[in-house]
Amino acid sequence: MSLKLPGSFKKPIPGQFLMVRIKGRNEPFLGRPFSVYSFAQDGRGVYVEILYKIVGKGTMCLSGQKKGALLEIHGPYGTPFDMDKYPRNVILVSGGIGVAPVTYLASQYRHYLPAAPHLEMVCYHGVTGSRRLLGLERLKEFCSDVFISSDDGTVGYHGSVVEMFEKDVLSYNPEDTMIYACGPRPMLKKLAGLGEVPRFRCQALLEEHMACGLGACLGCAIRVRDGEGRGAYRRVCTDGPVFNIQDIEWDY
Ligand SMILES: Cc1cc2nc3c(=O)[nH]c(=O)nc-3n(C[C@H](O)[C@H](O)[C@H](O)COP(=O)(O)OP(=O)(O)OC[C@H]3O[C@@H](n4cnc5c(N)ncnc54)[C@H](O)[C@@H]3O)c2cc1C
Ligand code: FES
Question: Measuring CA to CA, which of 18, 70, 74, 90 is 20 to 30 A from 200?
């Protein structure tokens, strides 16, 4: 979905999200969080794309909006991905609709880091099946390689994206490689559990349920390990949605 916003709308940093609400509707009452898929700007305004999957009332309602409909959009919110100033290897691991924020991240690395001519960006993207494969062409614009997996074997590697990535992980040097991941929780948990991953800097974007999106309701709290290794709670909407993957307590 393409959104036209006022020129004053702040440019989102990759990893940040927008709260989208259908104007004038009380059902669903609360906005829904969506990652930024693309951002552009000209003299007439700001243009943002989101990529969404219909899972319930809010997304169903969104899909019924006609061209020109008015939406209520707040943001950008949240703590973004850490982007390296002089990155060498960037690995993106995404599952399903998690392709949206990693594509925006890839676009920003590619266009705004001319100081990193040696940047190698590779994406491992998993889908349930070929019908769910979206945004491949755009990913290929930014990444030197895009590896696809599918659960049902209808496209690419037959199996999970994490299994596919595991086969290559030893070929990357943890010293100069940053991993960014977004996808369903089980996928991220599996990635966090790979023996090699703690040697890398690896950040994950969590697509948890949210209510206020502003840090007020605590509805999005997750359990993490803090800097001293103690258990603690963090709000996905303000402390996240991006976290160091090793800090997250997946079984809580
Ligand atoms: C930071 C962030 C970025 C996101 N980016 C995107 C994006 O780019 N594209 C996209 O399609 N979605 C994204 N999501 C998820 C999206 O916000 C939810 O899918 C959406 O809120 C669902 O609203 P709904 O009213 O359609 O579903 P609801 O009616 O609220 O729920 C329908 C069903 O889906 C389940 N469900 C709802 N939300 C989630 C969730 N977050 N995780 C697991 N199960 C859920 C519910 O338990 C219920 O069974 C993001 C979430 C976060 C927190
Ligand atoms: S959604 Fe309300 S505190 Fe995060």
Answer: 18
